[in-house]
Design brief:
The protein is α/β, with parallel strands linked by helices. The chain has helices at 10-21, 37-52, 97-112, 139-144, 163-169, 200-204, 242-257, 295-315, 335-347, 362-366, 393-410, and strands at 56-59, 65-69, 78-84, 121-126, 187-195, 208-214, 216-225, 229-230, 263-273, 279-280, 283-292, 319-328, 331-332, 354-357, 372-377. The chain is globular.
Length: 412
């Protein structure tokens, strides 16, 4: 006779992930930005699947899609399970989405077998974790945590559309965003299954691991201003080339980061002006992302980076300015959740390997109001944020069954 976790339907999960992948602005990979036509299509599919799994469905004041499965004690604190439904440009199929669909499968397995946990469980598909469209990350989860600021409603996308305007376009009142906030006493905790986005589990030949914490992040925009000139007439020693200066700064950033353990820094975007082949660049705008599980290390390195970039600019006759976009501290997962996840892994004859997440997750935002736990699932070659991102169906089944058992242990 099959145990409950063996009844997890991996084929159904894979089929739903493939269906969601069609909700994309691009044919290459998945491009599904928040508050777009594609995100609304995805929400409709997810709502339908939640209903099929016996959940009542609603969307909150910031367009998070939420399915509720009642427990034996309806007034008891609710266990939240989920991840995000938005993507980067030309993403893979599994980032975020696997966590949402696996959570629906957990509930559907309970529903189809006539089981009710003691505590209610809610599955959440967060509206905007990646922050690609409005350059403000974790919008949905920060709204639920009550940490979204009204001024963020006026953040603009590449077409000059504000978040508030985008919300209105899909029928939301942007100034009701605060209604998404949840009271900490009403929440038992938050549990998230996610692809690892790294190579450690694959190197260990293991399907799942438990996350011990999430690295803190600092995101900045920077601006390097020089002087436009003719490419054929201004000698190199006399130039104030903003792009050449920026290139030196990027290499300096790399050298600084290499001096620390558990530190990452990325210059992920550059815009060069005026952007003509025969003109010396007079302005470069870019982004800087710095991450570490140690907040002190992150802050120290960040200060060194900014000082060094400004020194390089001074030596080249340039002006360099940094503007903070977002800063979030490192987050540790709940020891209670870690212990429960570890016990389930050990029951399945897996090592209770503890992993640090260098990537940000919605769990970061919810950690300010409740206990959090995360389960990582192995992905091929550790590849993520790429169209070739892949998770084997067998690993999906194992990961979802671990999620199921952890959820039951927490709500029984």
């Amino acid at each position: 006779m099959q145990t409950l976790y063996q009844k997890v339907n991996a084929d159904r999960i894979v089929r739903r992930i493939e269906e969601l992948a069609k909700c994309s602005m691009t044919k290459k990979g998945v491009t599904r930005l928040s508050f777009s036509r594609e995100s609304e299509m995805a929400n409709e599919l997810v709502a339908q699947w939640m209903q099929e799994a016996g959940m009542t469905v609603r969307r909150d004041g910031l367009n998070n899609i939420i399915g509720r499965y009642e427990g034996k004690w309806p007034d008891a604190p609710v266990l939240l399970i989920g991840s995000h439904l938005d993507s980067i440009i030309e993403a893979g199929k599994y980032d975020g989405v696997l966590g949402v669909i696996a959570a629906i499968e957990v509930i559907q397995t309970l529903y189809e077998n006539g089981m009710r946990p003691n505590n209610p469980i809610e599955v959440i598909g967060f509206c905007d974790e990646e922050g690609v469209r409005f350059h403000t990350t974790l919008l949905g989860s920060r709204a639920i945590a009550g940490n979204l600021r009204e001024e963020e409603l006026f953040a603009k996308d590449a077409n000059g559309i504000t978040l508030a305007e985008a919300m209105k376009e899909i029928g939301l009142d942007p100034f009701q965003y605060h209604t998404a906030a949840r009271h900490p006493k009403t929440i038992l905790g938050y549990l998230e299954l996610h692809i690892e986005q790294g190579p450690i589990l694959e190197q260990m030949n293991q399907a799942c691991g438990v996350v011990s914490g999430i690295a803190g992040q600092s995101r900045y925009k920077f601006r390097v201003e020089g002087l436009v000139g003719h490419a054929g007439t201004v000698p190199l020693p006399l130039r104030k080339d903003a792009l050449a200066g920026t290139a030196e700064m990027i290499l300096a950033i790399e050298q600084i980061v290499l001096q620390y353990e558990n530190l990452m820094a990325t210059v992920g975007k550059l815009s060069v002006f005026p952007g003509a082949s025969n003109v010396i660049p007079g302005l470069v705008e870019g982004t800087l992302d710095v991450r570490s599980i140690d907040d002190g290390t992150r802050r120290t390195a960040l200060n060194r980076i900014i000082e060094e970039c400004k020194e390089i600019a001074k030596q080249r006759g340039l002006v360099c300015e940094f503007t903070k976009v977002m800063e979030s501290p490192a987050v540790l997962c709940s020891s209670r959740f870690i212990d429960v996840i570890s016990s389930v892994l050990e029951e399945r004859k897996m090592k209770s390997v503890r992993l640090v997440s260098g990537a940000g997750h919605d769990a970061m935002a919810l950690a300010s109001i409740t206990d959090i736990g995360m389960i990582f699932v192995r992905c091929k070659n550790g590849l993520s944020h790429h169209p070739d991102e892949f998770v084997a169906a067998e690993d999906i089944k194992i990961g979802t069954s671990v999620l199921l058992d952890v959820a039951l242990k927490l709500t029984s």
